[in-house]
Every structure is written in C-alpha cells, then in structure tokens.
Amino acid sequence: MKNSVFPTPFNTKVIGTAAITLSALFSTLSYAGDSALDKALDAQPDEVKARYQYRNPKDTLEFFGVEPGMTVVEALPGGGWYSKILLPVLGKEGELIGADYAQTMWANFSFMTPERIEEKKTWVTSWTADAEKWRGDDSAKISAFQFNAMPEAFNEKADAVLFIRALHNLSRFEEKGGYLSKALKEAHASLKPGGIVGVVQHQAAEDQPDEWANGSNGYLKKSFIKAQMAAAGFEFVGETNINENPKDQAAEGDFVWRLPPSLNGAGDDPEKKAAMEAIGESNRMTLKFRKPE
C-alpha cells in the first residue's frame, strides 16, 4: 500500500530465529516486481506514470483483486488509461470488456454535438478496433457493449466490474433515464456469483448538500454509493484510503474539474493554477462490493 514495504529496522527483519538481510530483502522485492501488474505499470509512458501518485493503479487493482486470467468489465474506458494496464495484466487467458454510457445518455451532455452523438452509435466497434492497437502478444481478448444494451452473452461472464471515476454522470442523469440503476443492474447481471465491483469515485463530504453532491460536479457521497449498490443487490466488502487526498476539501460551489489535470476555471491566472496544482487530483473513495453467491 502507500506505506513503505521496508521493515523496521530498515536492514533486517527477524522471523523466528531467521533474519532477512537487506540484500535478501531487495532480492525478494525484485522478484515481486516481476509480476504481470508491475511489468504493465513499468511499460507505460512517462506521462501516464506521472499520475500514479494520484491514481495509485497498483494498490487499486490489487485491492480489487484483479489477476491474470480474469474477465473484467471496465466502465467508461475512454482512451484506455486503465485499459492499457489491464490488457497485459489479464493476459492471454483473460478478457477486457469495455462498457460505455448508454447511447441515449449522451444527449444530456452540453458538449456533445449531434455529429458526436451519431458517432457513438458505432462505439462498440470503433473502441474495440482502437483497443486492438493497445494489445501485445500476451494481452487479453477485447470486447465491448453500451449500458442499457448489454448482450445476453455477457451474463455471468465477468469476474470483476470496475467503475473508476464513472459513477458521477450515471448518477447525475438518473432521473432522466434511470442510467445509474440500469448500469448497476447490468453490472450485477454480468458478474459471476461472487464477482467483485470495484469503485473509485470523487468523494464529497457527508455534510455537504445532496443537491450539490449528486454527480453534476463530479462528487458523490460514500453513503449514497453504498445505498445504491445495496439496492442493486451487492454486498459491501471493504474500503481503503489509498486514493484519498485530504487537500481536496471540496464544498458547495466547487467542481472536480477545477483540479489537475483539467484545471478548468484557472485560465491564464498563474496563482489560481498554482493553488489547484498544490491540491493535486481529487479526493477519492475506493470501495469494493461483491455479488452474493
């Protein structure tokens, strides 16, 4: 996790009457660093690695229990920030299934032009074609669907579903089409019994107004997500603080995109930009749920 892996004292860890020297410890760490996940993380470009300090992909995926050979549904995979890590981790025996927002949901975004909405109709084929370019010889298979239109072939196929910063817009437009509840229903249907749902989401403090923390500003309350997951038939497994950022004390009037990497609202104001960069990326909850067996 975020804490150092080194024992105290630094150079020796005693187990019964045996001692692991510093050199042996480094050897152990080197061996651990040869995992599929470590290799995938090390292979990413520098601009991706620069965000590890905020996104903590190693600890996050390990907490969710993602392993080689799994079938994983990734909600809103976009340009593949996580997909490019997951593909080699899941390996030849695994499968990555991208899941985009429902086709009808896109009209609710002010930035979506009619042309872009029309392009979304072919997202399943266009995204899988792009994702094929990210695959190596030992990468997972790729498939995809749009929420509200999941094929029956995906029922009870997945070992895990990942909603990484993907729930706020589903919540934001819930009243306009039941997008959150329908997506969670399909996530439940897609999972094998005992399958896991991993959630990473911009977190609003519980004392903030519900109207502000409804997803339209990027933030949701932990209590809200837990309630929605329970209503969808999931059991809460646990949580971790690995993606928390106490510097982000968002309150009514704030929106998550004011922070890096977007820095919306900073414009050409160097002081405002510096203030947002000093905060860093958003405060995020990391929750794990389970489909009962």
Would you write up a description of this structure?
This protein has helices at residues 22-32, 36-42, 46-49, 52-55, 57-64, 83-90, 114-119, 123-132, 167-172, 174-177, 179-190, 222-231, 270-279; strands spanning 13-15, 18-20, 71-75, 95-100, 141-146, 158-164, 191-204, 220-221, 235-240, 284-290. It has 293 residues and is α/β, with parallel strands linked by helices. The chain has one domain: Rossmann fold (3-Layer(aba) Sandwich), CATH 3.40.50.150. Strands 3, 4, 5, 6, 7, 8, 9 and 10 form an eight-stranded mixed β-sheet that branches. Helix 2 runs antiparallel to helix 6 (83-90). It is globular and about 50 Å long. It starts with 12 loop residues before the first strand and ends with a strand.
Task: Kindly report the CATH topology.
Answer: Rossmann fold
CATH architecture: 3-Layer(aba) Sandwich
CATH class: Alpha Beta
> How many domains, in number, for the residues?
1
Order of helices and strands: EEHHHHHEHEHHEEHHHEEHEHE
